[in-house]
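COMPLEX REQUEST
Ligand: shikimate-3-phosphate
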Amino acid sequence: MSNLYLVGFMGAGKTAAGRVVARRMGRDFVDLDDAVERQLRLSIREIFESLGEGPFRQAETAELGKTAMMSDLVVATGGGVFSDPGNRSLIEEAEAVSVFLDPPWEAICSRLDEKDRARPNWIDDRQARALFVKRRPDYLLADIHLELTGAETPVDVADMVRSVLAEMQCDT
Ligand code: S3P
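STATUS: Structure written out below.
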């Protein structure tokens, strides 16, 4: 079966929901940030600090490409993945399904504590909000748009993902 890619902004809950979706569907789970960290043997922060964002994006695309060669995966992408047209093409050409997890900005902000906000591309809330607004049109290109309140648990989100997928299968 084709892969499932969860896309959306930092703090949207892609990793937590992805793990549950994978478990429930009996699929393997890949967190793309973890895959990049393993490949480069550095943390995301170290990659940004010592190599810069360019090499991070190259490694991210390389890892995404590896997943696109496989099937039956649930993949949680980093927040920047779906803003790259080449990455979107990789996903599209793999005939995978992309799902945009879309909680409101306020929910993202209240969910992320100070440690979580220490992501390299979350400099402060003002800059992060501008990035969120800029990237949203890209996320909306995903096959499925899951509007969330932000109050859902990862299990709730996983249930929603699975029921939309089931509806899609009925429609085809
Ligand atoms: C990034 C999001 C992060 C990670 C890196 C860059 C971004 O992933 O890939 O820090 O530019 O939005 P999460 O969305 O899992 O936090």
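REMARKS: DSSP finds eight helices and five strands in the chain. The CA atoms of residues 32 and 64 lie 7 Å apart.
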